[in-house]
Amino acid sequence: MFAAPCTFLLSVAQMPQLPASDLPEVAFAGRSNVGKSSLVNALTARKTLARTSNTPGRTQQLNFFDLGKRLMLVDLPGYGYAQASKSDITQWTGLTRDYLRGRAQLRRVLLLVDARHGLKPNDREVMEQFDTTAVVYQVVLTKADKVKPLELDALLAKTRQELLTHVAAYPDVAVTSAVKRRGIAELRAELAELALPEPPG
C-alpha cells in the first residue's frame, strides 16, 4: 500500500477547514522535534513529503496526506517547547485537541516518543486525555538508532509496563528509526490493516 501515490491534501488551521473525507485517518502526535514529519516521510518513502526542521514548532497546522485513496495520514503540531508566540501555540494546541476529540474517522493516534528521553510529563498528560476521550493511541519510540541496545530494551520494557495502566493505549510499542529504516516495514503493515481494502482489479 505504501508504494501507492501519497499526496499532500491540505493544511488546516481551523476546524471548519477539515476535509470532508470517508478515509480512515492515522494521526502523528508527539513533542516538538520528536520526529513526526521524518516518520511520515520514512513510511511513505518520500524525503520531502512532510517538511522537517530542527526548529521546534515548525509544524503549526494539521497537515493531511492522502495515501493511495485508502488511508489519510495527519501530521499534527508538536506539543511542549516550540519557537513560536504564546498565542500561536494556544491556537494550534486547541485545534489539535478539538480534532482528536471529535474526528469520527480517526482510527489511531501514533504517539511518538524520543527513545533517548522516554515518556515525559506532557506525554503522560496527553495519554490521560486520550484515555478520557477514548482515542486509541500507540506509542512509537523514535530515533532508536541513537540509543544503545540495552538502554533501548530497558526503555521498551518500562514503557510497556506503564501502558498497562492506560485504557486507550494500544498494547504494542513500535520501535523506529527513520534514518536506519528500523521498524518501518512493521509499522507499515500495522497501518495497512486500518486502511480501506484495495479496490478490485
Main attributes?
7 strands; 5 helices; single chain; Rossmann fold; 201 residues
Largest sheet entry: 7 strands, mixed
Strand order of the largest sheet: 1-3-4-2-5-6-7
> What best-fitting shape do the alpha-carbon axes yield?
globular
Order of helices and strands: EEHEEHEHEHEH
Number of domains: 1
- Poorly predicted ranges: 52-59, 81-85
CATH class: Alpha Beta
Q: How far is the first residue's CA from the last residue's CA?
A: 14 Å
Structural class label = alpha/beta
Can you count the beta strands? 7
Q: Supply the CATH architecture.
A: 3-Layer(aba) Sandwich
| Mean pLDDT score | 86
The total count of helices amounts to 5
Layout of helices and strands, plus pairs?
Elements (H helix, E strand, L loop, with lengths): L5 E7 L12 E6 L5 H8 L18 E6 L3 E5 L10 H17 L3 E9 L6 H13 L3 E6 L6 H15 L10 E2 L8 H9 L9
Parallel strand pairs: 2-4, 2-5, 5-6, 6-7
Antiparallel strand pairs: 1-3, 3-4
